[in-house]
Amino acid sequence: MSGVVQELFVGPDGVARGLYGELIDAGALGAASVVRASHVEPADGCWTADLSPVGGPVLGPFSLRSEALTAEADWLTRHRLTPPG
Fold first, then answer.
1. Per-state percent for the chain, helix, strand, coil, to nearest 5
2. pLDDT digits 0-9 by tens, 9-36
3. I need a labelling partner for 81 at 20 to 30 A (CA). Which of 18, 21, 32, 43 fits?
């Protein structure tokens, strides 16, 4: 698994947030909850990443699902997981 990274962002209140992944057992860190932040779905032969559950935009269309997933992760990391700069 060389090169695979899963980031957790810990706020001043001690709450850790991150994109769901299986590299870190979130339950081992304490009480955990998983909340859907978006929906990556097919639309008219393409893919979109709908970030409306967290007040974000609909990204796309993308030719490949993997492109939509990458755009989704990038947007969430920039807008929901990093502290305001």
1. 30, 20, 50
2. 888 888 888 888 888 887 888 888 888 8
3. 43
> Rounded to whole angstroms, how far apart are CA atoms 29 and 44?
41
Give this prediction's pTM: 0.80
| Residues 24, 21: Cα–Cα separation, whole Å | 7
Tokens 């994109």 identify what position?
Answer: 19
Q: What Cα–Cα distance (Å) separates residue 66 from each residue in 2, 17, 71, 84?
A: 20, 23, 9, 28
pLDDT, mean of residues 63-84: 90
Query: How do the domains of the chain map onto residue ranges?
Result: 33-85
Q: Which two tokens stand for residue 44?
A: 């008219």
